[in-house]
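Query structure, 747 tokens:
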């Protein structure tokens, strides 16, 4: 049998085995959360390399986040044991597209030194264009319109053109779009959508670039958009071999033009697709799975599928209402500490995740964790790279790399303060635009004294710019040039450190931020560490694409370019599960960024109407799916909570999320000592871990149950008969379920 010959099959069920070794050209796995889709996809890659004999560099794997691709690479590496996984072309669609454009972009007229405009860059440019427009345009609307237009993919181009010119507004939007594109071009920038659009263009014109590709695999397929679908087809244009895995119930990127209809397209474009479903959930306790399913089943129109629990029953989720967001944060952190103690450290800090609908909710939790000295990491939405002090450094590096980047230059021109006001900056930009040169070229002229006859810039401004901006920047650019000239790879760390010194950045931060200076300076140091890590990683793992014989291509991009695009494409700063001192970290993440991941214990705070479903969301079903994604991240314990009053709403009362309010109160654990010793043994079983004996745990732990919670006292020392026929029963006997709805009983 297969299992005898290959280790990978040992951890797979029958349907998974079939999917891994399917010989059909196209395989589609549609299945619920925790059913092992990602696990199966990873195993299939190993199978294709080890058994079918496909070369790793001929495989493309697209994942949804950078974190997911790193994890997948590590898993594949673990199975192959010979380092071949390094050659697999694995990453997000954007990062794969970037690699192809860096290597072959010149063929379609791209300057190989192109930079990437991140979200805030695009926002800035569009806002400026909208302000100038005769027809009033809301910048966010314009931005969404432009992005949608690009993301639709080329197959929809005709429909867009047909609609064009219908209204004054759509004409204005079209003009805004054109202006935006030409500004990006002038600065040699591609935005996120452009990376995909231009890569499609490249692969249409030069299919040779992907002539080696034997197979394409895609995780989280439900969240691909039209242009990503085009890209997938182009990657697979020669081999026509595609494997996709996904779950329509977890489609949460409709706002970014993800399209469920890509599933139908796939079945139409690739006839004979082997459709496989996986029906067992290996992740969550059956109580958690049941509750999650009850939520998603509120959606009447969804495509129904089977998802059966494999794990023990476990214990019902906890639902708590607390006085305020501060109380909510306090409660979460005290539960984390309590569970950790109660489990005798069987559950440690890195087993906990706090999942938030929006990044703005993290403030209270961060400060409480900080106060308690519990280390944590932030994932998604809380972008490290968007912190002001880091953005400044990055902008300087962008200008060093690519001086014609007007936006980056305009942002740093007066940072640190050089006495150049907004008005002057605007005048400079306008002057540059009028003379059709970049801002840098304009400044450079002034700096070199080749002043044109008439200029608006006052002498003072000129001195400021030349002395404190142009000089250090020119020095650094000179350094980069010298490094390149003698053929030594640039030392990124030297560059960053020199930049920090030249700018007197520490002094600047101290002067600007006072009390907050220390944490800002710590971020700067973290940034240096990051550059170090990047250098190190780059030596080991060169992201080079395979070389296609007889097809001229650019040499691989320099390290500064790679670093900058990596930073821009990273959805978050990626930290290990342990901090530098080796302490395990609690995770705080947005729900969006938690997709595909799992933790033993999950907290979902702020489940009130307005937060989830979000007040500005227009698709209620998508909001419900978002909650479903969050809940299905939990393996053993799930906590939902909500404050009585919305802090940001000036103390307005919070209403429990409709998605949760619809559930029968028996779904949740009745009010009482939330989780206790008997629960711990069921948790241990679900996680496959060993619970330290009682006497070790209870030594020195104070009673954890608050008196007001003590409705149904459980003697922690009394053995609890929780196992019947190998199934852990819900810890609350039936007759106790008649309590009031817990959330309503807390005033
Ligand atoms: P999601 O939809 O949330 O991305 P998924 O379908 O990709 O979920 P995985 O993350 O691949 O699910 O798997 C969930 C968990 O189940 C993982 O911890 C995985 O190791 C485990 N698992 C998957 N298949 C099996 C199996 N056959 N036996 C035991 N454990 C399994
Ligand atoms: Mg997955």
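Result returned for the query:
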């Amino acid at each position: 049998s297969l299992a005898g010959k290959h280790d990978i099959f040992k951890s797979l069920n029958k349907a998974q085995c079939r999917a891994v070794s399917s010989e059909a050209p196209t395989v589609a796995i549609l299945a619920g959360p925790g059913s092992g889709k990602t696990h199966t996809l990873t195993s299939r890659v190993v199978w294709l390399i080890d058994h079918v004999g496909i070369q790793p560099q001929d495989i493309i794997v697209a994942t949804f986040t950078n974190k997911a691709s790193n994890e997948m690479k590590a898993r594949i590496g673990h199975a192959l044991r010979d380092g071949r996984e390094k050659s697999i072309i694995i990453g997000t669609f954007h990062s794969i597209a970037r690699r192809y454009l860096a290597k072959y972009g010149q063929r379609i007229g791209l300057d190989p030194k192109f930079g990437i405009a991140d979200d805030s860059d695009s926002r800035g440019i569009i806002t400026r264009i909208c302000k100038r427009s005769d027809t009033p345009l809301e910048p966010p609307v314009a931005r969404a319109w432009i992005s949608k237009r690009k993301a639709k993919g080329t197959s929809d181009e005709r429909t867009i053109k047909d609609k064009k010119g219908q209204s004054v507004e759509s004409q204005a939007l079209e003009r805004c779009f054109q202006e935006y594109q030409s500004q990006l071009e002038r600065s040699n920038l591609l935005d996120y959508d452009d990376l995909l659009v231009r890569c499609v263009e490249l692969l249409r014109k030069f299919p040779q670039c992907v002539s080696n590709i034997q197979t394409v695999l895609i995780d989280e397929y439900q969240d691909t958009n039209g242009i990503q679908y085009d890209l997938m087809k182009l990657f697979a244009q020669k081999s026509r071999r595609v494997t996709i895995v996904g779950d329509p119930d977890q489609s949460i990127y409709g706002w970014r033009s993800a399209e469920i209809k890509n599933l139908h397209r796939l079945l139409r474009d690739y006839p004979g697709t082997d459709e496989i479903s996986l029906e067992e959930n290996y992740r969550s306790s059956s109580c958690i799975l049941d509750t999650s399913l009850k939520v998603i089943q509120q959606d009447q129109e969804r495509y129904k599928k089977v998802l059966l629990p494999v794990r023990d029953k476990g214990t019902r989720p906890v639902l708590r209402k607390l006085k305020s967001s501060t109380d909510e944060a306090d409660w979460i952190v005290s539960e984390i500490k309590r569970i950790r103690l109660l489990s005798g450290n069987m559950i440690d800090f890195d087993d906990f995740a706090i999942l938030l609908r929006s990044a703005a909710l993290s403030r209270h939790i961060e400060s409480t964790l900080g106060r308690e000295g519990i280390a944590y990491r932030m994932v998604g939405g809380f972008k490290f790279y968007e912190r002001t002090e880091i953005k400044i450094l990055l902008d300087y590096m962008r200008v060093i790399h690519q001086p014609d980047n007007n936006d980056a230059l305009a942002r740093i021109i007066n940072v640190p303060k050089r006495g150049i006001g907004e008005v002057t900056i605007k005048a400079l930009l306008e002057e540059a635009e009028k003379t059709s040169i970049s801002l840098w070229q304009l400044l450079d002229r002034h700096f070199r004294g080749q002043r044109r006859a008439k200029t608006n810039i006052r002498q003072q401004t000129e001195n400021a710019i030349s002395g404190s901006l142009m000089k250090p920047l020119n020095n650094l650019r000179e350094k980069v040039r010298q490094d390149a000239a003698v053929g030594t790879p640039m030392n990124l760390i030297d560059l960053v450190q020199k930049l920090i010194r030249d700018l007197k950045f520490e002094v600047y931060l101290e002067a600007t931020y006072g009390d907050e200076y220390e944490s800002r300076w710590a971020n700067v140091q973290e940034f240096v560490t990051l550059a170090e890590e990047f250098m190190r990683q780059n030596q080991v793992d060169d992201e080079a694409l395979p070389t296609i014989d007889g097809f001229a291509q650019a040499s691989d991009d320099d390290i500064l370019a790679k670093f900058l695009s990596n930073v821009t494409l990273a959805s978050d700063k990626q930290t290990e599960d342990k901090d530098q001192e080796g302490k395990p970290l609690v995770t705080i993440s947005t729900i969006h960024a938690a997709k595909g991941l799992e933790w033993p214990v999950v907290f979902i705070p702020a489940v009130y109407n307005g937060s989830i479903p979000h007040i500005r969301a227009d698709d209620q079903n998508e909001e419900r799916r978002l909650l479903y994604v969050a809940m299905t991240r939990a393996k053993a314990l799930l906590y939902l909570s909500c404050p009585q009053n919305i802090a940001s709403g000036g103390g307005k009362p919070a209403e429990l999320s409709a998605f949760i309010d619809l559930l029968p109160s028996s779904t949740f654990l009745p009010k009482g000592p939330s989780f206790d010793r008997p629960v711990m043994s069921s948790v241990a079983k679900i996680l496959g871990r060993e619970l330290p004996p009682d006497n070790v745990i209870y030594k020195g732990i104070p009673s954890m149950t608050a008196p007001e919670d003590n409705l149904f006292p459980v003697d922690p020392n009394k053995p609890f008969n929780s196992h019947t026929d190998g199934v852990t029963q819900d810890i609350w006997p039936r007759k106790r379920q008649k309590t009031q709805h817990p959330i309503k009983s807390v005033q």
